[in-house]
Structures are given as C-alpha cells and as structure tokens.
Design a protein that fits this description.
The structure is a single chain. With 382 residues, this protein is of the alpha/beta class. The chain has 3 domains: 201 residues, HUPs (Rossmann fold, 3-Layer(aba) Sandwich); 66 residues, no CATH class; 63 residues, no CATH class. It is built from 15 helices and 12 strands. The chain has a 4-stranded parallel beta sheet with strand order 3-2-1-5. Strand 11 and strand 12 form a beta hairpin. The termini are far apart.
Length: 382
C-alpha cells in the first residue's frame, strides 16, 4: 500500500493501533474464544492452500498456545510442535520434552554468533540500526543518514524527526560508528559490536528451514503488548496473515501477559520453574478479570540475550542468571568472546559501556550476614 503523504501514513498507523486496542480491551473469556476462532480459521485456510501447520514453541506464551491447540482437539499428526529448545532454560526444555516437541538445532553456536556479528542489546529495532551504522555502504547511505538525523528520503515521505532516528541517548553512544555521526561528535563502542542477528541464526532460520522442508506454516505465541517490531507487524496485518512471502498465525496478538497466565492456569499448563509461582490479584481490573502474574521471570529467552536489559532494575536478568548458575554467569559476562588484542570479554564490557550495573550479583541474593567483608552496625566499633 502506498501513501500520498507522511500524514496519511501516520493516520493509517493510528487507525491500526486503535483497532488493536479495541481487541485488547475485552474480557479474557472473549479473548479466548477469539483465539480459538483464529486457530481454526488459520488451520482451515492453510489446508485449503495446501499447507501443513505447526506451533513454534519457546517460552510460556507459545507453550500455552500449544496446550490450547491440543485442548481444541488437534493432535500431533495435524499440528506438531517445533522448537529450538536448546536455547531455553533447562526447566523450559523439560516442558518441551513433555510436550513432544520436534527440536531443531541452531545454524551456528551462540558464542560464534556473538563473536562474528555482535551482541543483542537494547532492542531488535535499535540493534538493527546500530548494525547498519557498523556496516556502511553506498547503498545504505540514505538509511544511515535517517538513523543519524531522522531525515528521510522519498521512501520515507521526506519526514523529519522520524522514528528512523536512533534515540538521542544511544546516538551519543553509537552514532560515531558512522562518518556523519562522528562529524556530530557522537561516540562509538570500544572493541565490541552490536547485532540483531542472534535470533535469526539460533532460532528463526532453523525453524524456517524445518517449515520449508515440511511445507508447514506456523502458529506463533506473540503479542502486540510486547511492543517493538512485533506490535507494528501485528497491528498492520492482524492475527492470521497470508502474505506473498510470510504466512503465520498469532492467535494471542491481542493478549496481555495476564491473559496468557490466566489461560495457562485454566488449561493446567506445566509452567516451567523459571517463571516461579502464579499470583492472582484480589481485585478485578477494568475488564472484569483478575490479574494473573508470575513471581519469577516474566519473559524468557536465551541466557545471552540483552534485549530490554536497560529497562530492568536490579536484580536484573543477569543477576538472576548468577543465582541459577554462577558458572554460566561468569562465562557470559567475562569470557564468551575474544577481541582483536586477544583479551577475553563478554556482556560485562557491553553493560559497562551502557552504564548498567552488573558486578557483585551475589549482593542481591545473600542476606547481609552472608556478604563477605560487609560490616553492619552490630560489628562496628562505636
């Protein structure tokens, strides 16, 4: 679809956003029926077009989707479960095994992806822009200019201050990767790179390859409430999308996290240990539903993923990794990569550059009396 002006494009996006909000603002019981309708509709249309279907299984969202598919009567022969399970926490892997997931292997090891391409940090959208600045070519010159200044060409309707521009704080840290950015005095990271390619090599491509080999199209447990690229795509194309190059169903597109946990409880889902226990509010929300939350991780993924880390307070995900596995923490923070000088480094270098605290994670899990070398008022000389 083409637009005559940037204002027309913005109006279209606002309309799509309002349509999604309307679906999000309905009670849980209605959302569940809507999801079931979309699951059936996608399956029937996919079969009519000659495709098989599968559920791409990862964390709690898609695990719950898998349970719902089985609850609706679709067996493994009709809709199998496929997962890049080795990337997940051990408690999630256990549930995948119970569910009978078909496990696909990453195209490259995690360490190799970090070493060759860079660290997944901030968000996919931001990491992609930083990656573009890291690899300047004549073809991406216009895009790099938009990332630095927010000024777009004809394809961007000559917009200024567009969303293409990196946020000011990140321009100061990463804008100097580009010649134009250096002229503005922006900085560049020392001896590490940023990339959004991790998911592609570790999960997306392996699952896509399986899908092509089996002529199958996926159900995905993604939600617009997660924001970012997912929200944009779901708002634009809706739950069930049959495009020229992409076919997928996202029957939870209009869910909030509370709806997922609520449905997981209703279906008797084996919730992986990493999510902790389920807590239910004592007061109903504006939609007439109780709020369901988990006491552990809210969202999970690979232990080396840093998308969204800047929005977390301590104890953040890397602190919690230390609690589960100090050896893994030490590896990913200090020695998963090697720089040009031969020095080992890891997420610690990246977080230091971003100004995110990560050292002494044990302080967040030990009682005061257990902290080595720490004084308190009872053992101080007064």
């Amino acid at each position: 679809m083409s637009y005559e002006s940037f204002q027309e494009y913005k109006a279209h996006k606002m309309q799509k956003r309002e349509e999604m909000l309307m679906k999000q603002r309905v009670p849980y019981s209605i959302k569940r029926r809507m999801s079931e309708d979309r699951i059936r509709g996608f399956y029937n249309e996919a079969k009519r077009r000659g495709y098989n279907c599968h559920v791409s299984i990862g964390g709690l969202d898609s695990i719950t989707l898998g349970y719902l598919v089985r609850e609706m009567g679709y067996g493994p022969d009709e809709i199998p479960f496929v997962s890049a399970s080795t990337l997940e926490d051990k408690s999630i892997q256990q549930v995948h095994k119970e569910m009978g997931c078909i496990v696909v292997r990453p195209l490259r090891p995690k360490v190799q992806v970090l070493q060759e391409f860079g660290f997944p940090v901030l968000s996919k959208k931001i990491a992609n822009k930083i990656d573009t600045l890291q690899h300047p070519t004549e073809k991406n010159k216009t895009v790099r200019h938009a990332i630095i200044t927010g000024e777009c060409g004809a394809q961007g309707h000559y917009a200024t201050n567009s969303k293409m521009q990196l946020p000011k704080g990140y321009l100061k840290l990463f804008g100097g990767l580009d010649e134009e950015g250096r002229a503005y005095g922006y900085g560049a990271p020392p001896n590490f790179r940023v990339s959004d390619k991790c998911c592609y090599y570790l999960k997306e491509a392996p699952c896509d390859n399986w899908a092509k080999e089996n002529h199958s199209v996926p159900y995905l447990g993604i939600m617009a409430s997660e924001g970012g690229r997912r929200a944009d795509a779901l708002e634009e194309h809706g739950c069930n999308y049959f495009g020229k190059t992409t076919i997928r169903s996202a029957p939870f597109a209009f869910y909030y996290h509370s709806d997922i946990v609520h449905l997981a409880v209703d279906l008797g889902v084996h919730i992986p240990d990493i999510y902790g226990n389920v807590e239910i509010s004592k007061v109903k929300n504006e939609f007439g539903d109780y709020e369901y939350t988990t006491t552990g991780e809210q969202r999970t993924g690979c232990e080396m993923c840093g998308f969204g880390i800047q929005m977390e307070s301590r104890p953040h995900r890397f602190d919690r990794l230390y609690e589960r596995s100090p050896k893994q923490w030490e590896f990913w923070m200090n020695r998963c990569c090697t720089d040009e000088t031969g020095e080992k480094y890891g997420w610690g270098r990246v977080l230091d550059y971003l100004g995110i605290e990560w050292r002494n994670p044990q302080y967040w899990w030990l009682d005061n009396g257990q902290l080595e070398g720490q004084l308190n008022i009872f053992n101080m000389e007064l």
